[in-house]
Amino acid sequence: EYEGDRDGEGQRHGFGKARLPNGDTYEGEYEHGLRSGHGTYRFKNGALYTGDYLQNKKHGKGVFFYPDGSKYAGDWVHDQRQGYGEYLYANGDTYTGEWANNKRHGQGTYVYKETGSKYVGCWVNGIQNGPAELIHLNHRFKGRFLNGKPLGRGKFIFDIGCEQHGEYIQPVQVKETEKEEEDEDEPPLPLEPVWKVSEITKLTPWSPHDEE
């Protein structure tokens, strides 16, 4: 069903309201039969998008409300979260920063609602990766991350005015010789990186690019 403006060829053009066969509805601008310009799309499952369209795709600036209560407000390119945007997750966490192909990618800040901790730094394909700072209530960690875990040289900076320098080392997986037959196919669990302290100092300038 459609009610609204049409062009000379009878295609939807200008402003209109439509109900789609799947029960979704759209109210907004059209260009020659395609959703283009500003509009609001309501999904049957309760999700809602309001923002810019280009040739039936979310493109430009827009806000998407997901059925689980989460929400994204920011840039879109060809139906994907891409550019800069803010995502409020269902658990109350937030991410503000760069996106590519629907994933956190580039520079961004992630705030954990439960602890109030903040990750400020690089992301690759949705995962914490690269130079970053992890800010906690009364101390912070400066260093590098790889696949969501800190790795290599870094330092903890404490609000009381001192620092702890050291590095995160990836422990080596020890193979058990007497393994049960049926466990053969199970992949080994990745071990958590271990922090090794090298020194405790007064506050010093340091960046992840400092390699001794």
Set out the fold topology:
Elements: E1 2-6, E2 12-19, E3 25-31, E4 34-42, E5 48-54, E6 57-65, E7 71-77, E8 80-88, E9 94-100, E10 103-111, E11 118-124, E12 127-135, E13 139-146, E14 149-150, E15 152-158, E16 162-169, E17 194-202
Could you characterize what this model shows?
The chain has strands spanning 2-6, 12-19, 25-31, 34-42, 48-54, 57-65, 71-77, 80-88, 94-100, 103-111, 118-124, 127-135, 139-146, 149-150, 152-158, 162-169, 194-202. By secondary structure, it is mostly beta strands. It folds into 2 domains: 1-69, Histone H3 K4-specific methyltransferase SET7/9 N-terminal domain, CATH 2.20.110; 91-172 and 193-202, Histone H3 K4-specific methyltransferase SET7/9 N-terminal domain (Single Sheet), CATH 2.20.110. The protein has a 17-stranded antiparallel beta sheet that branches. Strand 15 (152-158) and strand 16 (162-169) form a beta hairpin. The chain is elongated. It starts with a strand and ends in a 10-residue tail after the last strand. 23% of the residues are buried.
